[in-house]
Amino acid sequence: MQRRSFLHKLIAGAAALAAAPAGLAAVSTGYQSSIRYLRPPGSLPEEEFIGRCIRCGQCGEACPNRCIKFFSTDNGLRSYNTPYITPREQACILCMKCGEVCPTGAIQEIVRTAQTIIDGVKMGRAVVDRSLCLSYQGKTCGVCYRACPLQDVAIKVGLLEQPRVLEPCVGCGLCERSCIQIPQAIRIIPNYV
Q1: For residue 79, what are the contacts with CB-CB under 8 A and spacing of at least 6?
Q2: More reliable by pLDDT, 75 or 55
Q3: Gyration radius from the chain CA atoms
Q4: 188: phi > 0 → left, psi -120 to 50 → alpha, else beta; which?
Q5: CA distance 8 to 102
Q6: pTM of the model
Q7: Which residue has the higher pLDDT, 179 or 1?
Q8: How large is the average pLDDT for residues 48-71?
Q9: What HEC string does the chain produce?
Q10: Average pLDDT for residues 148-168, to the nearest whole number?
Q11: Residues 6+ apart with CB under 8 A from 91
Q12: Cα(46)–Cα(38) distance, rounded to whole angstroms?
């Protein structure tokens, strides 16, 4: 990270945190964003995450897939400079590197095994819109199934590769990212909704 970028983020984060006790938190409580986003894998529940994240940017630097971005003021001042993922643009590959570098535990460190990811990652859950899904319209597709890192655990396919999302879905967004339909037939509903 370059010195100028680091100082800018440090000052902006400090200003946002300093303003919160002076009434900012009360003004933005209940703020509902029009942006559908995911927090990085292993993130604490939203309120606790906002309180513990120091906006250091290390999670984004560690992300090999470059899916982690940082909010400006478009999601309210409380979220300023916090990490988020937009799965349609670039989904999470569940490498779990963001939790390894988080200095405050806002993103929990999770060992990269199928079971620990299923148990510890709750980014959201995939939902299929059958009216848009090609497989439910009589054409085989299965792209979302093939993109899923937890095939037959988080998503299964039936006749004509019709996808069925299962309970262990962690909401990484790879299915949404890979969907060939526009608008996409499978979307991640974030866990904060």
Answers
A1: 33, 50, 71
A2: 55
A3: 18
A4: beta
A5: 19
A6: 0.81
A7: 179
A8: 97
A9: CCHHHHHHHHHHHHHHHHHHHHCHHHHHCCCCCCCCCECCCCECCHHHHHHHCCCCCHHHHHCCCCCEEECCCCCCHHHCCCEEECCCCCCCCCCCHHHHHCCCCCECCCCCCHHHHHHHCCCEEEEECCCCCHHHHCCCCCHHHHHCCCECCCEEECHHHCEEECCCCCCCCHHHHHCCCCCCCEEEEECCC
A10: 97
A11: 65, 67, 85, 172, 173, 174, 176, 177, 178
A12: 10
Query: What's the distance, Cα to Cα, between the start and end of the chain in Å?
Result: 33
Mean pLDDT of 65-88: 95
Bigger pLDDT: 21 vs 115:
115
